[in-house]
């Protein structure tokens, strides 16, 4: 009996085929429910005790040899069909491809950049760790100026001259120092303020600030630019400018866009007024131009600044600013289909 099994083993070892059916027949013959292997196992109880050990080892060997042979032949067959360009099983489900998504802040930032680039603005960037001059002094905010309190600042303790920028106006100062007018640039980036974190404010957020300097730039140019922007981004062209104060612009204004009062959400986000504040703006103060080496008698300009986080929350109906920095994939995955 043992010899007979050994013959089978030798036969399997010799066997080769590239036919699917032949391989399947081999499997059924040995490993199938009514296959030889099961027959031999059933025979086990009739084997004399002194041969049981060898018999057992031999049928196990038969099982291993048959299994390995069948697997090897199947694999060779699969490879062969791939090589010849005839793919095995076209109905097999494909491997899932995991798609990433852009962060909502990046999506909205890109939209804003895109709108301004269409009217000739380029993009400028600068360091997040700034010095006092570029963040404050050059912008008409000398030391001890009370308006410095408008922006609670993170200073580096060992060197009060170094700080985390509180706005990207600092980039505009750098740009004016290094480029001659005409200037048309927007500066997107992350900014920091020493504020308590809540659903509506964070100690870091993102801004896009814009700067336009040329001969004869007027407040009317500013208004027209803002109106173009709100129409492109929100699809809303009605804006109003409320007088305000910024040390680096004169006159200064806060820009509201008419959002409407059509839905309950409109009431909530506009506090029932229909108007929504979206940014600050103004004509660049002549002192600032002079600080940056630009002749304020020859040139004038306007500047504006807005928070990307607020606008993102508005456009995507996000009710808590903290979601934007928590990296929760359940939140981020919702932006897969966006730009
Ligand atoms: N820098 C101002 C801020 O961070 C925004 C602003 C920019 C206002 C330019 C006027 C002009 O609040």
From TrEMBL:
Localisation: Cytoplasm
Gene Ontology cellular component list: cytoplasm
Transmembrane regions listed in the UniProt entry: none
Residue ranges occupied by any Aminoacyl-transfer RNA synthetases class-II family profile domain in the UniProt entry: 108-334
Keywords recorded for this protein, A-Z: Aminoacyl-tRNA synthetase, ATP-binding, Cytoplasm, Ligase, Magnesium, Metal-binding, Nucleotide-binding, Protein biosynthesis
NCBIfam families (UniProt xref): pheS (TIGR00468)
Gene Ontology molecular function: any one: magnesium ion binding
Cofactor: Mg(2+)
Lineage, top ranks: Bacteria, Pseudomonadati, Bacteroidota, Flavobacteriia, Flavobacteriales
Family: Belongs to the class-II aminoacyl-tRNA synthetase family. Phe-tRNA synthetase alpha subunit type 1 subfamily.
Assembly notes: Tetramer of two alpha and two beta subunits.
Reaction it catalyzes: tRNA(Phe) + L-phenylalanine + ATP = L-phenylalanyl-tRNA(Phe) + AMP + diphosphate + H(+)
Entry protein name: Phenylalanine--tRNA ligase alpha subunit
Pfam families: Phe_tRNA-synt_N (PF02912), tRNA-synt_2d (PF01409)
Chain residues that bind Mg(2+): 250
Broad class of where this protein is predominantly found: cytoplasm
Any Gene Ontology biological process: phenylalanyl-tRNA aminoacylation
Record-listed E.C. numbers: 6.1.1.20
InterPro entries given in the database record: aa-tRNA-synth_II, aa-tRNA-synth_II/BPL/LPL, Phe-tRNA-synth_IIc_asu, Phe-tRNA_ligase_II_N, Phe_tRNA_ligase_alpha1_bac, Phenylalanyl-tRNA_Synthase, tRNA-bd_arm
The UniProt record lists the keyword Transcription regulation: no
Cofactor, how bound (note): Binds 2 magnesium ions per tetramer.
């Amino acid at each position: 009996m043992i010899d007979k099994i050994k013959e089978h083993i030798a036969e399997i070892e010799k066997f080769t085929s590239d036919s699917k059916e032949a391989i399947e027949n081999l499997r059924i013959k040995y490993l199938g429910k009514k296959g030889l292997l099961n027959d031999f196992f059933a025979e086990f109880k009739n084997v004399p005790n002194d041969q049981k050990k060898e018999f057992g080892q031999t049928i196990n060997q038969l099982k291993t040899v048959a299994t390995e042979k069948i697997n090897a032949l199947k694999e060779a067959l699969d490879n062969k069909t791939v090589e010849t360009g005839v793919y095995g099983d076209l109905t097999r489900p494909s491997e899932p491809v995991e798609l990433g998504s852009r962060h909502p802040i990046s999506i909205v930032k890109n939209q804003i950049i895109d709108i301004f680039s269409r009217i000739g603005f380029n993009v400028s960037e600068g360091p997040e760790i700034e010095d006092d001059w570029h963040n404050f002094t050059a912008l008409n905010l000398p030391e001890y100026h009370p308006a410095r309190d408008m922006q609670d600042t993170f200073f580096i303790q060992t060197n009060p001259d170094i700080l985390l920028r509180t706005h990207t106006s600092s980039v505009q100062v750098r740009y004016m120092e290094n480029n001659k007018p005409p200037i048309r640039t927007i500066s997107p980036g992350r900014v920091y303020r020493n504020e308590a974190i809540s659903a509506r404010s964070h100690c870091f957020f993102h801004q896009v600030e814009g700067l336009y300097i040329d001969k004869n730039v007027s407040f009317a140019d500013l208004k027209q630019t803002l109106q173009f922007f709100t129409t492109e981004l929100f699809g809303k062209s009605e804006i109003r400018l409320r007088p305000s104060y910024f040390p680096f612009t004169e006159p200064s204004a806060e820009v509201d866009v008419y959002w409407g009062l059509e839905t309950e959400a409109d009431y909530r986000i506009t506090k029932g007024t229909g108007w929504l504040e979206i940014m600050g703006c103004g004509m660049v103060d002549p002192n600032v131009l002079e600080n940056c080496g630009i002749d304020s008698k020859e040139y004038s300009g306007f500047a504006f600044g807005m928070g990307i986080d607020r606008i993102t929350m508005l456009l995507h109906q996000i009710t808590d600013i903290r979601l934007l920095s928590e990296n929760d994939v359940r939140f981020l995955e919702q932006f897969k289909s966006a730009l």
